[in-house]
Automatic annotation (TrEMBL):
<feature type="domain" description="N,N-dimethylformamidase beta subunit-like C-terminal">
    <location>
        <begin position="293"/>
        <end position="560"/>
    </location>
</feature>
<dbReference type="InterPro" id="IPR046540">
    <property type="entry name" value="DMFA2_C"/>
</dbReference>
<dbReference type="InterPro" id="IPR013320">
    <property type="entry name" value="ConA-like_dom_sf"/>
</dbReference>
<protein>
    <submittedName>
        <fullName>N,N-dimethylformamidase</fullName>
    </submittedName>
</protein>
<dbReference type="Pfam" id="PF20254">
    <property type="entry name" value="DMFA2_C"/>
</dbReference>
Length: 561
């Protein structure tokens, strides 16, 4: 039987929950209702030639039917700056620009900076059109956008400084591009002036954005930039393009720069989700959907491969139109995990509501229950490899890697989940896959549906690990289960109650904290049973400001995969 496993999708707000605490689930479906039951998985392998699908139904406070809604996934990263009108052009002059390094020029316009809103056709912005040409977008009181294009095509993966100078008194605008000299290539500078329309509408009433436009006034965004942006700046006084480009904001006590409205220095707070404005206005912003920071910027010398040693050389942010960290769905239900539940691998089983059963329609959302404060501890603890599950989450290798058949030594076949991912790429892929601009993915989050970490999904990793749990159950060996998330955040304390720890079939990804915890545990006399291959290989980390995201950096500069 071919099961319909994607009629319902979902994810937990926390991947592991101690017994006695709560976990929320965000579900989505085109069907108006869903029937929920909670399972404790003993073996998640549905292959009839294997041990069989073994599970225990757990009575819970969320059993039964729930209302369900179709919740969209809106990928694409950008920066958001609240400004109370300070970033609306005022007075006679308004000059703004940024370094850009486009990595994908195709399909549609790519926003650089501004407060433009497509629904209201109000605001202003700099963007690149589908050919890579700089465009100034201005709102008019007529409700029709005015667009002015500089006929210079930027090249992919080449730094350029794009800017605009508005003279509102003289009703003129000058668009400029400067491609700085690089090696044997001389500097290239082009500009063009335009006459502005009479009745401008430059205030959209919305936050200022970097790397996106507002789709509407409901915090929905569009025209996401694919590529790096560095050092956006705004002045309320006349400056030519070169003067604006070479301005170096180095604030000191008691000294200000005339006309400076904002200067966002992305070398500040690289490990955070905030962007810092160095101007006296303190127009700091926040990042949405986790764009990649600590990437080589315009000033990179090639001699430093650690952003901590020279943050200025890594002062860019790499935005992607398909970045996804958190789907942001509304909560469907909240499970209060009883204090008496055994630790282990758990899943919500999602099936259609109503009296007419559909035996071929079921989906699962996996989570883990760990021992609670009052739980009796076993001698043995299994450490589930969540970091590895995330690294491979929604892997699309079978779809896009030309060497896949050689790698796997069998003819390519695509299960339904692969087809679903190809038709719905907004769900996000694994750290083995690439963004639409060809750059490697560095982040993977559990705040999105993960199709290959559940029963009736691809058996690699989690499902294989449940074979070990099934064997322990069959032999009557008592065990607890924690995840390597606890290992990362609690260190050796997470292992201290146990005589023996076991890592399952494929514990490939380990952070500094995880490795030190295991070494401290072993050095203190703890025993370690390693049941896997390709183990303890890739170094990874959980993002310090986005706790649900695994981060994997590959490459000499630590900026690519």
């Amino acid at each position: 039987m071919i099961y319909k496993t994607n009629e319902y999708l979902g994810y937990p707000n926390r991947i592991s929950v101690p017994a006695g605490e709560s976990v929320s689930f965000q579900l989505s479906s085109k069907r108006p209702k869903v029937k929920i039951e909670v399972l404790r998985l003993r073996c998640g392998d549905v292959d009839a030639n294997g041990p069989g699908f073994k599970r225990e139904v757990m009575a819970s406070n969320i059993d039964g039917e729930h209302a369900c809604r179709d919740q969209p996934i809106r990928p694409g990263s950008n920066a958001i700056i609240e400004h109370d009108g300070v970033l609306v052009p005022a007075g006679h002059h308004w000059c703004f620009g940024a370094y850009v390094h486009p990595t994908r020029i195709a399909d549609n316009a790519k926003a650089v900076m501004g407060n433009w809103c497509e629904a209201s056709a109000r605001g202003y912005a700099l963007e690149l059109d589908e050919q890579g040409r700089p465009v100034l977008v201005l709102g008019q009181s007529t409700g029709v956008a005015a667009r002015f294009t500089l006929d210079v095509k930027l090249r992919q993966r080449v730094w350029a400084f794009v800017s605009c100078a508005l003279d509102l008194a003289q009703r003129s605008a000058t668009l400029s591009v400067v491609v700085p000299a690089d090696g044997v290539r001389p500097v290239v500078a082009r500009s063009k002036s335009f006459v502005l329309p009479q009745a401008l509408a430059l205030d959209s009433g919305l936050p200022f954005l970097i790397a996106a436009h507002h789709r509407n006034d409901e915090r929905q965004y569009t025209s996401h930039f694919d590529g790096k942006i560095e050092a956006p700046r705004i002045f309320a006084r006349p400056l030519d393009a070169e003067a604006l480009r070479t301005f170096d904001c180095q604030p000191r006590t008691g000294a200000t720069h005339a006309g400076l409205v904002a200067f966002w220095d992305f070398s500040e707070g690289i490990s955070s989700l905030s962007v810092k404005d160095l101007s006296p206005n303190c127009l700091h912003g926040s990042l949405r959907q986790l764009p990649r920071r600590g990437v080589t910027g315009f000033h990179w010398s090639g001699s430093v491969h650690d952003w901590r040693l020279s943050p200025r050389e890594y002062a860019a942010i790499h935005f992607h139109s398909d970045d996804i960290y958190d789907c942001g769905w509304q909560t469907t239900c909240t499970l209060d995990v009883p204090a008496g539940w055994r630790s282990g691998v758990y899943a919500l089983r999602l099936t259609p509501a109503g009296d007419a059963p559909e035996v071929d329609c079921e989906s699962y959302v996996t989570f883990f229950v760990t021992p609670g404060r009052t739980s009796r501890r076993a001698d043995l603890v299994i450490v589930a490899s969540v970091a590895t599950y995330l690294a491979y989450a929604n892997s699309a290798l079978r779809l896009y890697q030309v060497h896949f058949e050689t790698l796997m030594e069998h003819v390519l076949w695509l299960p339904q989940d692969d087809v679903f991912m190809q038709e719905n790429p907004e769900i996000g892929q694994s750290t083995y896959d690439c963004h639409v601009d060809g750059s490697g993915r560095a982040y993977s989050s559990w705040l999105r549906p993960i199709l290959n970490m559940r029963p009736r999904g691809y058996w690699f990793n989690l499902i294989n690990d449940t074979h070990i749990l099934d064997w322990l159950e069959e032999k009557g060996i008592d065990y607890d289960l924690i995840t390597d998330v606890e290992l990362d955040r609690e260190g050796a304390r997470a292992l201290a109650p146990y005589r023996v720890m076991m890592t399952p079939t494929h514990p490939e990804y380990f952070s500094f904290n995880m490795m030190n915890a295991i070494m401290a545990y072993q050095n203190a006399g703890g025993r370690h049973i390693s049941m896997g291959g390709n183990a303890f290989y890739w170094r990874c980390g959980f993002h310090p400001a986005a706790s649900a995201a695994l981060e994997v950096r590959r490459g000499m500069a630590g900026t690519r995969t």
